[in-house]
Design brief:
It is an enzyme of class 3 (hydrolase). GO terms for molecular function: cation binding; protein serine/threonine phosphatase activity. This protein is an alpha+beta fold. The protein has helices at 3-13, 15-18, 83-99, and strands spanning 35-43, 46-53, 62-67, 72-77.
Amino acid sequence: MLRWLARPAERCLGRSACGCGGGGSGDGGGGDGLLWHAELKPHASGEYSIAVAQANERLEDQGQVVTSPAVTFVGVYDGHGGPEASRFLSSRLFPHLHNS
């Protein structure tokens, strides 16, 4: 998995809980640094897995995964015009929804 998705998942779930450690090959392989996946992980509603493919080296997109027994929140923010808007949403949208 790419670090843009791993970092938020690690913050929310912990490195071992989400299987989001490692570089380009991660737990599930990939090898070229732009492809990554995590094997199936248990969740209250079943199982989940994460797969990521990045088109270029410059990171503009952001994403986050937050799970709990009651809800799963997945945010994917497209930064095709630059990273500022996607970073803003990644850092503020879920906390805003959570506190509402």
